[in-house]
Structure formats: structure tokens, C-alpha cells
């Protein structure tokens, strides 16, 4: 078993600021030993004479916009599945499953698509399943179950074992152990690919002929399968930079021509550290969204005009960070936008445009809560998150609402199931929700002065205090406490 992974905080998230520097990321790429050289533009035409239409099965959960954008970037058109008949008539089918196992199977069964999928795969027609699109091929899942799957591949999808110190969900960039004749993985080489999941399928004797690669995260699990023209991957190629685009390109190209000659494999380290570019996004006085930087939450310049500090446009900066090697881009919306109808929220447009050229995970935070717009229309936090996912977000970050939920649970000891955290994770999986905490150190002279756990500080407080506890803050309001 490999050593426990280092948390992403071992490399601090790169904050958008005037000190932004490409050489920082350049040094990081050398450290990681798997550089991602990203061209300014990247497009491949479908093979002449071949079918350039890809049929996409989008059952309505999670973010598939990046898959669409990646397929179009590679020169292919998309036909959406509307009925089970569309699956049976497809010449090349991509199933980017996002969300939880049970709701996905419910949709497939209700629309008659489960049987059509099995028939399509039995015909050995070109198929690529992504993430949940791989898991659904197995006999069943333990996620909110047992829940019966499509039954194409023997085995049960189970939750990662966290008792060995490995965190669940598994979120990060990992290397693959690629088997022979994997075909679509032949250009992976020493690169890492992006995983985000809590459940996995395990290699066993009866499914070993399906396995084209495995990954190790505390235990060996199936990271991809292949039999004939049927492929599926547990990772997200549309979020894995150039390495992921090569997987999609080889799958699509192999449907028209013979796959390119296999390249030599270079062993990558098991788990890669990550650089996350965090962009604070705010509307300026003209109503335009800009990336800003605060000083104790003050985002205005100390000038006569007192304008919002402007470091650039969100979409352009996100694209630049991606080209320079960032592994994830996080947008933190620090403007309320409470009067807008949900579909018109400015951040949705930012996500849509960013996902056209940024093929690493996109996280959005700020405003993921119940709200009522200026027309009196009420939206639940689940509806808000769903719109962000459809617009290109892979994860939503929750701040204040998470604190409220923690305080309520601390008072009652009861999980109601109605908090934004619980609702969103139930539908989209807990890997799709992260909590953002802004801690503030509060000094005390004696640990007995407060009911919270304190630590002994190495540097005394302003009045010689030797102890401190941490308080959760959101903007200038203290909403709760971080217990450590």
C-alpha cells in the first residue's frame, strides 16, 4: 500500500493578485514531473469520410458541458439522446454520467434507456462511459443501496474504505497502471488524470478481462475498462487537460481510422499535488464582473475614485491559469446578485464561457443557498446548484449555509436532510460539494475562558495571550465557530 496522500493544502491555492507570476507555475510543473504543455488553440477535424457526429447521452444530472465543449473542440458534432431509439441508432455513443447511482438508474429505467444501452453495448458499437457512466455498467452499487445496475460487467460498486487513512471522496490527479491494448490510453504516458468519486469498482477474477487500467488510492480499483469497441473510464478526461483530451481524441478517431501507434509508457508518481487558482469575482461600479483582491475584505482601491480593484476578466484569467498549468480553477462570487432571476445570474455566463477553453475542474462558490429574486420567485439551494452544474461547474463551494447547518446540528444533534449540503450531495454525490471556511484566530489568556477547543500558540497575541481558538467568518460577520 502506498503512503497516505498529501492534502491539497500542502501547495497553497494560488490567489489571483497583482503578484501573479507564470514562473511560479513553471517551477511547479518541473516539481510534478508531468508537465501539461497547453497550446493556445487546439482543434482536430474528424477524419475525412468518417462519421463526425457523436451521440451524447445526457440524462440531466451534473456538469456535462465540458464534455460537449471537448468533443466540439476536437472537431465533432453532437446529437443528444432524446429517446431509447436514439441510442439504438447511434454510431458513436458517449455517456458522461455525473451524480449518484440510484437516481441515474431511475432515469434510465423510466425512459426505457437501460435496455437500449445494454443492446447497444452487446452489439460492440463504439461506446465511451465516463465516471458514473463506467459504474452503471456493473451489476450493482452499494450507494444508497444495493441498487441494481446495467449488469454488463460482473462486480459490485462499493465505497472507498476510509479506515486506512485515505480521504473519501477521492479527489485529485492520479497516475494509471495501464494494461496492454488499452488503445484510448496509449498517449497517457507519464501524465496524471483527474478523479472525483466516492465509489469504485474492484478488480476481481470474473471481470479481469474487461480491465484496461487500474489506479491505486489506498487500494487498487478499476480506472478503465475495454472490450472491443466498448470503453469506460472512472476519471474525467474532459477535466484532465491535454492528457484527457488525448483520450477523447483517440476514442473518437478510432471510430473512423486505425488508432495511432502506441507510444512508450512512462511511469508517473501515484498521486500528484495540485495547484488551484482561486479567483475572487465581483461586479464593479459599472456592473461588469472583474477578478479582484481584498485587503481584510476591502476590495476597493485607496484612491480618490475608490474603484473596485480590477485584476482582469474572469474568463480570460481562468484561461491563462489553465494554459500555465493550474489543475483546477475556483471562482468565488463575492457579489450578492439577489435580484436576478436564476437563469440570468452573471456567474452562469462566466462558467459557460470558461468551460469552452478550460479543461480542468471548475468550482464556483458564493450564493449557493435558497433565495428569492426581485420578481418574488423562490429558488431552493438545489435549484441554484443545478443551474451552476449545467453551466459548467464541477463542484459548488458552500460557506455561510454550511456554518448554519453545523450550528443547527450542534444544537439539536439531528440531521434534517434539508440543508443545502445534504440536498445537493444526495442528488449529485458528496464529491460535488465542498465547504469553504474562513477561520479567524481569537486569542485568550486561559483555555477555561471559552467552551471551545484552544491551542497553545507559538507567538503570543496582542496582549500577551498564549492560547487561541478559531472562529468561522463570512465577510465581516461572524457566523459560527471552527472546532479543531
Question: Can you put this structure into words, describing what you see?
Answer:
The structure is a single chain. The protein is α/β, with parallel strands linked by helices and 484 residues long. It is built from twelve helices and 28 strands. It has helices spanning 22-32, 65-73, 84-88, 101-110, 113-122, 132-135, 241-254, 314-323, 346-354, 381-391, 400-412, 420-428, and strands at 14-15, 53-56, 77-80, 93-97, 127-131, 138-141, 147-148, 153-159, 170-174, 177-178, 193-197, 199-201, 211-216, 220-227, 230-233, 271-272, 276-283, 289-292, 328-333, 362-365, 371-372, 378-379, 395-398, 433-435, 438-444, 455-456, 467-474, 477-482. An eight-stranded mixed sheet has the order 3-2-4-5-15-14-13-10. The longest helix has 14 residues, at 241-254. It is globular.
Amino acid at each position: 500500500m502506498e503512503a497516505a496522500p498529501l492534502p491539497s493544502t500542502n501547495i497553497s491555492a494560488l490567489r489571483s493578485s497583482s503578484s501573479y507570476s507564470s514562473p511560479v507555475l513553471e517551477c511547479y510543473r518541473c516539481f510534478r514531473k508531468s508537465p501539461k504543455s497547453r497550446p493556445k488553440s487546439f482543434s482536430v477535424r474528424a477524419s475525412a469520410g468518417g462519421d463526425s457526429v457523436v451521440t451524447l447521452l445526457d440524462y440531466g444530472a451534473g456538469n456535462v458541458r465540458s464534455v460537449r465543449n471537448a468533443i466540439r473542440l476536437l472537431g465533432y458534432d453532437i446529437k443528444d439522446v432524446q429517446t431509447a431509439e436514439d441510442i439504438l441508432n447511434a454510431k458513436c455513443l458517449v455517456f458522461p454520467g455525473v451524480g449518484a447511482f440510484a437516481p441515474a438508474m431511475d432515469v434510465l429505467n423510466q425512459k426505457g434507456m437501460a435496455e437500449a444501452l445494454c443492446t447497444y453495448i452487446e452489439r460492440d458499437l463504439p461506446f465511451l462511459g465516463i465516471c458514473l457512466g463506467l459504474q452503471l455498467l456493473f451489476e450493482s452499487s452499494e450507494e444508497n443501496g444495493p441498487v441494481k445496475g446495467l449488469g454488463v460487467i460482473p462486480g459490485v460498486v462499493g465505497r472507498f474504505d476510509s479506515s486506512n487513512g485515505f480521504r473519501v471522496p477521492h479527489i485529485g490527479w492520479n497516475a494509471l497502471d495501464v494494461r496492454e491494448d488499452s488503445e484510448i490510453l496509449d498517449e497517457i504516458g507519464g501524465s496524471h488524470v483527474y478523479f472525483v468519486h466516492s465509489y469504485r469498482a474492484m478488480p476481481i477474477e470474473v471481470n479481469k478481462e474487461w480491465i484496461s487500467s487500474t489506479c491505486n488510492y489506498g487500494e487498487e480499483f478499476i480506472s478503465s475498462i475495454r472490450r472491443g469497441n466498448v470503453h469506460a473510464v472512472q476519471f474525467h478526461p474532459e477535466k484532465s487537460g491535454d492528457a484527457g483530451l488525448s483520450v477523447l481524441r483517440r476514442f473518437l478517431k478510432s471510430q473512423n481510422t486505425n488508432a495511432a501507434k502506441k507510444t512508450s509508457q512512462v511511469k508517473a508518481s501515484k498521486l500528484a499535488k495540485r495547484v488551484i487558482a482561486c479567483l475572487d469575482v465581483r461586479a464593479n461600479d459599472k456592473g461588469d464582473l472583474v477578478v479582484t483582491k481584498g485587503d481584510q475584505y476591502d476590495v476597493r482601491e485607496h484612491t480618490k475614485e475608490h474603484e473596485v480593484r480590477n485584476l482582469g476578466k474572469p474568463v480570460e484569467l481562468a484561461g491563462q491559469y489553465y494554459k500555465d498549468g493550474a489543475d483546477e480553477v475556483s471562482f468565488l462570487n463575492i457579489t450578492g446578485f439577489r435580484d436576478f432571476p436564476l437563469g440570468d445570474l452573471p456567474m452562469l455566463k462566466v462558467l459557460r464561457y470558461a468551460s469552452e477553453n478550460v479543461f480542468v475542474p471548475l468550482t464556483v462558490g458564493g450564493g449557493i443557498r435558497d433565495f428569492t429574486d426581485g420578481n418574488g420567485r423562490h429558488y431552493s439551494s438545489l435549484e441554484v446548484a443545478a443551474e451552476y452544474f449545467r453551466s459548467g461547474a464541477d463542484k459548488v463551494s458552500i460557506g455561510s449555509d454550511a456554518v448554519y447547518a453545523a450550528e443547527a446540528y450542534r444544537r439539536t444533534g439531528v440531521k434534517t436532510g434539508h440543508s443545502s449540503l445534504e440536498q445537493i450531495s444526495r442528488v449529485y454525490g458528496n464529491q460535488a460539494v465542498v465547504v469553504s471556511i474562513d477561520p479567524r484566530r481569537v486569542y485568550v489568556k486561559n483555555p477555561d475562558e471559552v467552551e471551545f477547543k484552544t491551542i497553545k500558540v507559538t507567538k503570543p497575541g496582542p496582549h500577551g495571550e498564549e492560547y487561541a481558538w478559531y472562529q468561522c467568518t463570512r465577510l465581516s460577520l461572524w457566523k459560527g465557530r471552527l472546532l479543531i
